[in-house]
Write a structure and sequence with these properties.
CATH superfamily: Alpha carbonic anhydrase
Bound molecules: ligand U7Z, zinc ion
CATH class: Alpha Beta
Radius of gyration: 18 Å
Helix content: 10-25%
Number of strands: 15
Shape: globular
Length: 276
C-alpha cells in the first residue's frame, strides 16, 4: 500500500487500513453488527423525515471504490431531519457497497445476517459547518442513511442508475446524471436503528450519525450484476479489476449502544401513558 492508496483487495483491504489510518482501531468505527433485541427503545427519538421533493442529482462518478451519484448541495432543498438529528442535514451524494456473484455485500449486518448490498445516502450538517470537508471531520458532521438491498424481483427504478453505468466504467470517470430523485429508492417504512459511528472507508473519520433503515428494498441479481460491470481500475491500467466486494466488515461496538425508534403502536402507548 503506497501513499493514500487503499482498496478492497488482499494487500490494500480493510485489514490493513489501520497502517495509514490508525483511527481504523478507534472507539466509534463503522459498520457494526446490529442486534435488534439489544437496541434501546429511546422515547426521545422522533421519526426521521426526508425532504427530497426539490432534490435533483447532478453527476455520476466512479470513485474507484463505488459508484457515486452527487447532488447540488448549495441550499437546503434536500435534507434529512428528525430522528437523532438536531439540525437538518443536506444530501451530498449516495453510493452503494456490494458483494461478488451470490456473495454478501452489505456493510452493516443484522444479528449476523448480511444483505446483498447497502445504499448510503450521505448528508452533512450545513448549519454548524461551512463545507462538507469540514463536516466530515466533526463528531456531528455527517448523517448517513443506510438502506439494505435484498435480492428478489427487479427494482422498478434502479435501472435508471444501472443504465448509466457504462458512462463511468473506469475509476475516475464522471458523467452528467441530472434529475434523479432518490425518493424512489426508499422502502415504504422509515423505521430505523441509530448509533454514532464513522465513515466506512478511509479516512474513516468518526463523524457519522448512522441511521439504518430496518426494511430493505428488493433488487434483482441481474441488477446487482450490472454494478459488477464497473471497474476498480482506471482506463490506462493494464489490469482490469471488476468492482465487487467493496464493503468493510462489522467493527467492534466498544461499549456503544444502538437505539431504535419506537414503532407507531409503542409511540401511541407512550402518549396514553403520559396522558394517564
Ligand atoms: Cl472532504 C475530503 C476532502 C479531501 C479528502 C478527503 C475528504 C473526506 O474526508 N471525504 C471525502 C470523501 C470523506 C469521505 N468521502 C466520502 O465521500 C465518503 C462519504 C461517505 C462514506 S460512507 O461511510 O457512507 N461509506 C464514505 C466516504
Ligand atoms: Zn458507504
Amino acid at each position: 500500500m503506497t501513499g493514500n492508496q487503499w482498496g478492497y483487495g488482499k494487500e490494500d483491504g480493510p485489514s490493513v487500513w489501520h497502517k495509514n489510518y490508525p483511527i481504523a482501531e478507534g472507539d466509534r468505527q463503522s459498520p457494526i453488527d446490529i442486534v435488534p433485541h439489544q437496541a434501546i427503545h429511546d422515547p426521545s427519538l422522533d421519526p426521521v423525515v426526508l425532504n427530497y421533493d426539490q432534490c435533483t442529482s447532478m453527476k455520476i462518478n466512479n470513485s474507484g471504490h463505488s459508484v457515486v451519484v452527487e447532488f447540488e448541495d448549495s441550499d437546503d432543498r434536500s435534507v434529512i431531519r428528525g430522528g437523532p438529528l438536531d439540525n437538518p442535514y443536506r444530501l451530498k451524494q449516495f453510493h452503494f457497497h456490494w458483494g461478488g456473484k451470490g456473495c454478501h455485500g452489505s456493510e452493516h449486518t443484522v444479528e449476523g445476517k448480511s444483505y446483498a448490498s447497502e445504499l448510503h445516502l450521505v448528508h452533512w450538517n450545513a448549519v454548524k459547518y461551512k463545507t462538507f470537508g469540514e463536516a466530515a471531520t466533526a463528531p456531528d458532521g455527517l448523517a448517513v442513511l443506510g438502506i439494505f438491498l435484498e435480492t428478489g424481483d427487479d427494482h422498478r427504478w434502479l435501472h435508471v442508475i444501472t443504465d448509466a453505468l457504462y458512462t463511468v466504467k473506469f475509476k475516475g470517470s464522471v458523467a452528467d446524471f441530472k434529475g434523479f430523485n432518490p425518493k424512489c429508492l426508499l422502502p415504504s417504512s422509515l423505521h430505523y436503528w441509530t448509533y454514532l459511528g464513522s465513515l466506512t472507508t478511509p479516512p474513516l473519520h468518526e463523524s457519522v450519525i448512522w441511521i439504518v433503515l430496518k426494511d430493505p428494498i428488493t433488487v434483482s441479481e441481474r441488477q446487482l450484476g450490472k454494478l459488477r460491470t464497473l471497474l476498480f481500475s482506471g482506463e490506462e491500467e493494464n489490469e482490469r479489476v471488476h468492482m465487487e466486494n467493496n464493503f468493510r466488515p462489522p467493527q467492534i461496538l466498544k461499549g456503544r449502544k444502538t437505539s431504535a425508534q419506537k414503532d407507531r403502536a409503542e409511540q401511541f402507548k407512550q402518549l396514553l401513558w403520559n396522558q394517564y
